[in-house]
Amino acid sequence: MKIKILLAALLIWNLCTSSFGFNNASANNTIRIGLKRRTLDIHSIKAARIYAKHHHKDLNMNLGALRDEIVYVKNYMDVQYFAEIGIGSPPQHFAVVFDTASSNLWVPSSKCIFSIACYLRSKYRSRLSITYTKIGNPSKIPFGTRSVRGLFSQDNVKVGSSVINQQVFTEVTREGFFTFLSARYDGVLGLGFQDVAAERVTPVWYNMLLQRIVTQPIFSLWLNQDPKSRLGGEILFGGVDSTHFRGQHTYVPVAQNGYWEIEIGDVVIGNNSTGLCKGGCPAIVDTGTSFLAGPTTILTQINHAIGAEGFVSMECKTVFSNYGNMIWENLVSGLQPERICHRIGICTRNGTFDVSHVEEKMVARSSKLEKLPNDESGLCSFCEMTVFWMQVELRKETTKEKAFEYVNQLCEKLPDPRGKSYINCDVFSLPHITITIGNKPFPLSPDQYVIRVEDNHDTRCLSGFTALDVHPRRPLWVLGDVFLRAYHTVFDFGNLQLGFAESD
């Protein structure tokens, strides 16, 4: 509703200003931001984390109506792209991440005196700005499993050559010690929706429109695929640069839940359908992470197909060896897949579907913690993944022997949630991974999804895919830079849609 009110106000303003002849927008009406790119290193990649939680939100306290919501956060450790902005008059300069999966602007404050990390980066000094307005209300912004804390302030913000007047932002006064010590940026400029902004403050992008700095309610992103180029990419506020893409954009609607979230279809490995998202899966388009994240069930299949290192799960092998025949027989007999694990006695309820226990177990073991017990809920999760994998093979009319061999191999390829998977740098034999968007295939070649990093003067290769488990009835994907480098993206705020075209 807030978005519709904002767009209606912009339309009325356009009509009024054009009628009276005092349109004060610049002739170009766009802001072009060149992005710098940093080289990823092993430390940053290993430290990178993304998190998502699924919960119900009350829509009507009297009727008890609920809506499923996803809360998505990360720690930005694998960020590659950033640009400089200015805050204050005269402008104080900060390197910030332009992040489509958050909505606040925040930078370190000169009042941040008890966090060592604050001494290693630029800090905002309100006393040096003649346009500073004190607000002083406390601010808390989610950051990984924790948060950054500070105070709301108001000042002019310079983005490119344009100035947004009296933008509310957060002066961060407390930063996590280990979180920020190795970060190569100062703060974050969120390009998400106001619904997910801390204290619902008006985001920078909204004020660009309200203050008529740009007139077209769109912005577009291009990431340079040439690793040797000095220009990492470009964000164009208020327009689209036709030199950065080939063909036409495919547009799909945005789910109105605060994120740039779309629905994707089937994910295909080579020529083989994975099947999980044929009925649709949500995907957040995120410029603030380098990887492409998805559910363990599919990431395990991708790991197997591209020869990535995996995590051997004895719990998975135990479920498969003890119940594999029963699962196969139930699938062949036509029993609904979501009822099988309940019927054979592993899950207590029909369709429990809670693979978060899988991630919990793998995290514990990969951290060399005490082994978790084989609790029923964990075994249930492995059972449901086994059912899914067998169902995929059954649809391909694979023999029982080959299907069993395949599932046993998958139990050795589970993605480790506390790390990334190494693969052979010889990518020529690897399959394309294709994501369906708007009923159109968007393939990623091995060169596009394999990430090369320098490690002690040696080049190592990692899979560009990482696991993210939220709620298997609504498996979430995150389309990060691995995808966005391959496809020029238009964020159409006016029509609440996203457009993708092949990058040039």
UniProtKB/TrEMBL annotation:
Listed Pfam families: Asp, SapB_1, SapB_2
InterPro entries: Aspartic_peptidase_A1 (IPR001461), Aspartic_peptidase_AS (IPR001969), PEPTIDASE_A1 (IPR033121), Peptidase_aspartic_dom_sf (IPR021109), SapB_1 (IPR007856), SapB_2 (IPR008138), Saposin-like (IPR011001), SaposinB_dom (IPR008139)
The name this protein goes by in its record: Cyprosin-like
Similarity-based family: Belongs to the peptidase A1 family.
Limits of the Peptidase A1 domain: 81-501
Disulfide feature: 112-118
Saposin B-type domain residues: 311-351, 376-417
Keywords: Aspartyl protease, Disulfide bond, Glycoprotein, Hydrolase, Protease, Signal, Zymogen
Signal peptide stretch: 1-21
Active-site residues, record numbering mapped to chain: 99, 286
PROSITE patterns found in the cross-reference section: ASP_PROTEASE, PEPTIDASE_A1, SAP_B
Lipid metabolism is among the record's keywords: no
Gene Ontology molecular function, alphabetical: aspartic-type endopeptidase activity
Biological processes per GO annotation: lipid metabolic process; proteolysis
